[in-house]
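Troubleshooting: if your tokenizer reports a length mismatch, compare against these two reference records.
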Amino acid sequence: MYTEDRQLYLAHCDNGPIYMLGNMANRHGLIAGATGTGKTVTLQVIAESFCQAGVPCFMADMKGDLSGISQAGAMSGFIEKRCPEFGITDPQFQGCPTRFFDVFGEQGHPLRATISDMGPQLLSRLLDLNETQTGILNIVFKIADDQGLLLVDMKDLRLMLDYVAKNAKEFTTNYGNITAQSVGAIQRSLLALESQGADKFFGEPAFNVFDFIQTEGGKGVMNVLAADKLMLNPKLYSTFLLWLLSELYAQLPEVGDLALPKLIFFFDEAHMLFKDTSKALVDKIEQVVRLIRSKGVGVYFITQCPDDIPESVLGQLGNRVQHALRAYTPKDQKTVRAAAQTFRPNPAFDTEQVLLELGTGEALVSFLDEKGAPSIVERAKILFPLSQIGPITDEQRQQLIRSSRIYGIYDRDFDRESAYEVLVERQKKEVQRAAEEKKELEKRKAEEKAQKEKEKEKKAKTSSKRKSKSALEKAVGSAATTIGRKLGNEIIRSILGNLGRKR
């Protein structure tokens, strides 16, 4: 519940109302607690309070429960009992302006990014690549940049990988070693990711993060991501939310500390973000969380245990709501002790003991004071939401989607010329050029063969003429010899005959 002095009334303790200061809301926060202790309702209460203050929010909806934030709530026995405790006489039940999003485009406006927007670092995490394969992917992105090839969707990346692999010798000198085995491993990871439906996430129109920062009627718009299907692939879920956070950090201008944040980003199931994450990426997350507050964005992590979050990040979360924890094992007891030690102690109670006693809707609460220091922890009851608790119907959801201001902007995809089209055209030209070269070569060979046949035929004719001439000469010579011999004999006989008669 938002008050006019830029304070958010969120909980009530024995000492009275507990407020979060608007100008400290961008110092980030934590909502933690075991399953069933009330984390989702707490998130809803905080989000709708920001909504009333004109601050838009982004949140992932794991079970569809948060969709109720779009509708006005109603009085119930539980709320009626709590009203006197909170000093509320006439609760003004109201819904929040809400937009629904869905990576798969089924329960909300599609949320897409291009391969280039995602970048090799986050994509490597998504594909679960090793260090060598990540290096190859970086090279592929660099070659694409140098050649002006846009990587928009998965078919762009697949063909780009194929292109780099086929021309590896050409690229190795300038970019480093490229092995067919590593490229093949990346291709297989892409196929596995595509089979999980991730191909629907990559494409255009790419989402404009400024569409998250909208108001309607003076209220901040609640941007709710349908995550029930997305959660089936935890890697995709956490990497996708990290990409959104990185995009906000990259695109928003520096604004310093504002009276109220520009956007509150709720990161549910935060433990998935840090599970099996490289130190380099954890350092990147820590940097984004540290610096994004100057862009007017507050990040609130929701998880079961505070130790799910690295200390470098946990230390930046100044506003905390800690619901009950369970201590069934020595490890659980250690977790409870560590969680208790993160609060500024209250001499009125034992923080560690209270963590085990909290009921549903109760929490240990500590918000930053006007100087930015953590306040003394209080045992408190979280306010009830003024919006509906629980999911809305499919009909209500579809009606809200169709009436949204951004309806039609992201709901139809398109495929402009990118790396795939350019490389396919290159391949066509290369095939055509190869065919023309082959045809020219065959033509030359045919001409050479014809020339050789012609020369062979000429030689054969020449040889035949020579043979004919030689035979004729021999025949003539033989005839001449025969004739000469006969003529000589006749002359001799004639002479000898004459001599005989004279005698």
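Reference record two:
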Amino acid sequence: MIRKHRLSLSTTQVILLGFLITILVGSMLLSLPVSSADGKAVPYVDALFTATTATCVTGLVTVPTYSTWSSFGQAIILVLIQIGGLGIITILTGLMIMLNKKIGIGDRLLIQDAFNLNTMSGLVAFVKRVLFGTFLIEGIGAILYMLVFVPEFGMKGIWISVFNAISAFCNAGMDVIGDSSLCDYAANPLINIVTSALIIMGGIGYIVWWDVLRVVKSRTSQNRKIFRHLTLHSKIAIVSTLVLLIGGAVLVLIFDYHNPLTIGEMSFPNKLLASFFQSVTTRTAGFATIPQEHLTNASAFVSLLLMFIGGSPVGTAGGVKTVTMAVLVCSAVASIRNREDTVLFGRSISRRSISKAVAVTVTSFAIMFTSTILLAAVTDVASLDILYETVSAAATVGLSRNLTSSLNLAGKIVIIITMYLGRVGPISLAVALGSKKESQNIVKNPTEEISIG
């Protein structure tokens, strides 16, 4: 955002370099002895892995977060999570606002591209609302967590509550409670509900927040018609999220109902709670209330699909995004029915949007496929465990079937690169494809039909 040093940098390059610099600085700080709980420097590859998973809000860890890092190290991780969740450009803009620096046209273009907005009006106010809304929701989440963690852990429970609230909202999935994520709280309604709410709020996307508030304020006397007056983007994001959450929960409940290693021994209400949380957390959050390695194969593949899709655009979640998948599915249905237009909620989807959806999905799939092949080449474990690890890394989820901590050096490097590409790849591609520049070529190549399928 400093003009003289970024005149030649595009928004895509700013995002790529911003995340990379943040990861490198974070890894150097985490490699210091002061960052370690025992005062001995953690191997740099583990510091780099942790910095990457925090900045990319993934959650996969090679060393336990609660026991490996000192208070200083945990604070560094939390800062990296917050930066990764909000995004580099949002953080830089927030700092400029705090320092009363002028935000020029170039900075506004960066904000517009980063959030994929269609207008340049009110961009600074938009960033302020994003920051205020984020800290408000994280604060409420932390206070609610304290109702459980302070009685259990004493004053340490305050830090655990703050850490978990930020990690959950940013869809990072890291915690400082123990080595089993939230498995000890599988039957705790407050922990499940608060964590799920934070994950969903972070993953639904800021655009949906403000759109819902806009309609509520303008339709106070006709609240039952709120959905009708939402933008097409918000309608798709909300409906897709509900379908995935409910559908995923039902399938996990069915496939693992009698599995004694997951939910089989639970009461029916707790089975519902655990199944729903599994559906929520696979939307790129990474917390776990049931051991992922003990899921039935059917539930594991359902989780893989949910991880691949992820959350919604312009939020803290990863994956190809709900709106992207909805557009692709509806476009396929339209083709099957031999219809010219792809229609959602009475609106036609532009060809440009469909092309962007295809490009983002293909790019994400390519990252996952390549990393799966590479990880399979350097490790000797079950194929499902490898696939779970790479999809989780590429979609920035953070769920693992107990593979991450046993990765060798080559495996760690593969996952580090996968997490980075999974976080910045689809974002940067979406930004690049969203450029307002039009092609100057007036000569078009001849068109010829080919056979498909």
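Descriptive notes for reference record two:
- The first helix runs from residue 11 to 30.
- Residues 1-7 have pLDDT under 50 and may be disordered.
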